[in-house]
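Tokens in:
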């Protein structure tokens, strides 16, 4: 198999052309990468039928997968006519995230693309949606598409967090901005860089450790220090002042408002693994997936070396 990195499109079980198809086609042309389309199918009705007649259920599964693969081939044809290399596959799986991991282990992937799928709050209590698994645990960049108003992005919004000052955090910010700059350049899109200074979170964290009161001016000083770190990062990546934004407020609300006002097509941000209570409550990226007016492009930190 070719060692050229591919875009992996996770097609929906329903045989309908979605926004992710359009975005994948445009990204494949902009990034000049081949595409592998895969449908991860599992129909509960056929599974139940197997309890009574396993042979007939297996035949129905094979027929369904063949039909779905033929449908994918039809969706791939216009892309091939534009000179893109596209392969298709349909699999019967009960654990889609594990199947995606297997793809990541078996072929070089540059990006995983999938339509964002909204789950009700009640369902999220009892199981972790696939989108959240990809954001939390997948080590590859993930693009969750909510709509394709502009199949090729016209405005890219990069989100960084300069609250923490550890070396690995600063390096991760550089990685996020690098990814956003590269995407904007390849798609001939405009780039905005944004940091939201959440002084409420800083205050809550520090008062728990017996810090000085807000009136002392400590938090204004911290905000000024963060602004300087942010300004240096923007300059380092060549982001002009008119495209560089440092604002105060609640991150989730401010990011969504900014993306709406500036008609962003993609939010590029970093995600890290969460354990324990943080995994249960979710991250900013996961909440943005529910509320943001545009698609999410999740950049992952470098893998930690094996001990």
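Residues out:
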């Amino acid at each position: 198999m070719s060692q050229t990195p591919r875009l992996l499109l996770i097609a929906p079980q329903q045989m309908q052309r979605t926004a992710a198809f359009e975005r994948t086609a445009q990204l494949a042309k902009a990034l000049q990468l081949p595409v592998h389309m895969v449908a991860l199918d599992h129909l509960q009705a056929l599974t139940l039928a197997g309890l009574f007649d396993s042979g007939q259920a297996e035949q129905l599964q094979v027929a369904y997968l063949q039909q779905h693969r033929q449908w994918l081939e039809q969706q791939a044809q216009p892309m091939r006519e534009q000179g893109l290399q596209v392969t298709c596959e349909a699999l019967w799986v009960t654990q889609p995230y594990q199947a995606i991991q297997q793809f990541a282990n078996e072929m070089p992937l540059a990006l995983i693309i999938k339509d964002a799928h909204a789950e009700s709050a009640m369902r999220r209590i009892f199981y972790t949606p696939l989108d959240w698994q990809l954001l939390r645990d997948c080590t590859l960049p993930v693009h969750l598409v909510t709509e394709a108003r502009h199949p090729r992005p016209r405005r890219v919004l990069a989100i960084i967090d300069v609250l923490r000052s550890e070396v690995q955090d600063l390096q991760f910010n550089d990685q996020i901005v690098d990814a956003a700059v590269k995407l904007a350049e390849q798609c001939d899109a405009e780039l905005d860089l944004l940091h939201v200074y959440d002084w409420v979170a800083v205050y809550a964290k520090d008062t728990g450790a017996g810090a000085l009161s807000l009136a002392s001016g400590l938090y204004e000083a911290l905000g000024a220090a963060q602004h300087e770190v942010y300004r240096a990062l923007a300059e380092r990546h060549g982001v002009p002042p008119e495209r560089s934004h440092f604002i105060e407020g609640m991150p989730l609300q401010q990011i969504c408002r900014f993306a709406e006002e500036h008609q962003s097509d993609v939010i590029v941000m970093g995600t890290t693994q969460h354990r324990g209570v943080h995994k249960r409550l979710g991250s900013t990226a996961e909440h943005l997936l529910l509320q943001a007016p545009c698609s999410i492009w999740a950049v992952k930190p470098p893998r930690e070396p094996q001990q």
